[in-house]
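Before going further, learn to read the protein records used in this course. The integers have meaning only within a learned vocabulary of local backbone shapes. To see the layout at work, look at the sequence and tokens printed below.
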Amino acid sequence: MPQFVWKGVTRQGNMTGGVLTAESKDLAIQDLRRRNIDVKSVKEKGKEFAIPKAGYGKVAAKALAIFTRQFSVMIDAGLPLVQCLDILGTQQDNKAFQKIILAVRQDVESGSSLADAMRKHPRAFDDLYVNMVAAGEAGGILDTILRRLSTYIEKAVKLAGQVKTALIYPIAVLTVAAIVVFIILWKVIPTFAALFASLGATLPLPTRIVIAASNFVARYIFFIVIGIFSFVYFLKKYYATYKGRRVLDNMILKSPILGDIMKKIAVARFCRTLATLTSSGVPILDGLEITAKTAGNAIIEDAIMSVRKAVESGRTIAEPLGETKVFPPMVVQMIGVGEQTGALDAMLNKIAEFYEDEVDNAVAGLMKLMEPVMIAILGVVIGTIVIAMYMPMFDLLGKIN
């Protein structure tokens, strides 16, 4: 049998290594993992091969939802855990996700729990997912937990799509309008300016303003483009900072129309996530921390973390939640009722369903409102430019008559 030179880390965190005889490299890795060794490298006759590692790349939520749904059906049917992971990994089209599933299977086969095996791949299985799987394993209800997870992920995908719709649609329309105006000023207006100059026409004020804007664009086009890209780049850098994220997220929440939609989305996400976690047996403090991380808005995240601190000191959820002034009074009161009656998860689900419907209606209303508004803005801008260009022509025609 071939020999393999290996290096790894023991459970105590010490580096170790040696030579192992095995029929294949896969069996060598399995043997080492059974010894509770975190394998770092294995080499056969001078040739290295890749060891599955965490973080192959972000897995799409839709693919994760399908995987979770299929996983729950297989577990419910009584298939062994390793066999389920083997089947799901083999049939997975996404190669990165396939490697992750097969790596999880290897760890489970070596004696690791499913939650611990998934915890090594945070870009595929986040804290919420791992904690719920751990609760499912501990309570012997893994199939039920996986069904809840798949439902939660599907609803989260829908909410994320609504966020994109609410943000991207107006930005896209305004961007197209700006590009159209930019091209007209850069390419079309100089032709009219040259014509008016050759005819010696007297230019009214609106025409002079449009031509001046055209000359500015033509002269400084390079700096304008660089300035736009620089602004976007530094805005992203600023948003990546602690202060920047809170300033911009606060501006979004306080903006007219859009701010109300974003707040409803945040409330729906908070209630759905916390309901899923609490109904699955995850401790409330862990649930609040995970919910804060998935809030999607720094202001909401800070509010939830302040509630967690209050709960940790012995208070209820509803009272400190109301003190944050972020969540609507109706939500606070319903959560308070849920705590008093011992049906917090059911109440949170009802709130989530209500606000998800509210988000549907709000986004649909925004789309209906934005279309005529954007058309009107574009019409006014383009119409103003066209009228400004034709005013000198009317003057010239009047002189000819």
